[in-house]
Amino acid sequence: MELLDIYDKDRIKTGKTIERGSDFSEGEYHLVVHICIFNSKGEMLIQQRQPFKAGWSSMWDITVGGSAVAGDSSQTAAQRELFEELGYKMNFRDVRPHFTVNFDKGFDDYYLVEADIDITKLQLQYEEVKQVKWTTKEMILKMIDSEEFIPYYKNLIELLFDMRKKFGAHI
Question: Which class is domain 3-163?
Fold first, then answer.
């Protein structure tokens, strides 16, 4: 049983938790983290979800994502998810998310990381990740069209690529 911290609309922990998969009440939110790793060629590392994984089975997704569990900060959740899913260690202690996207029941924190990773040395979490590969923005957009990639807004994918190596909304 996994517990998630409940946040209020201002992203303040309420002190309450909820079991993963349970319904949130009005005014209750949770935290999700996404890590997008880019190499020096400007490609993003993407993962294919296992065919037996509930939700978006066999589809491709951005590098890593998952819910923060009770007691996690955004940074500890990012560090844990990256290690759990890919076996890749990175310290997020002094790293801020590049941006946050609010959704109906929570907050999505996006971390954009630059790292030339040898994907043959990653230890993929069998329960979640079938395979990984490096790919371009254009290929991800085509994969969304062909319904091979989780149907993110294409503008979001473009923003992920545009925001890498930068913070803020100005050039």
Answer: alpha beta
CA 107 to chain centre: 11
C-alpha–C-alpha distance, residues 104 and 116, integer Å: 34
What is the DSSP track for 21-66? TSPPPTT-BEEEEEEEEE-TTSPEEEEEEPTTSSSSTT-EE-SEEE
CA-to-CA distance for 143 and 90, rounded, in angstroms?
28
Q: Which two tokens stand for residue 20?
A: 């993963």
- Coil, helix or strand at residue 14: strand
pTM for this model (two decimals): 0.95
Report the chain's mean pLDDT, rounded to a whole number: 96
The domain spans of the chain are: 3-163
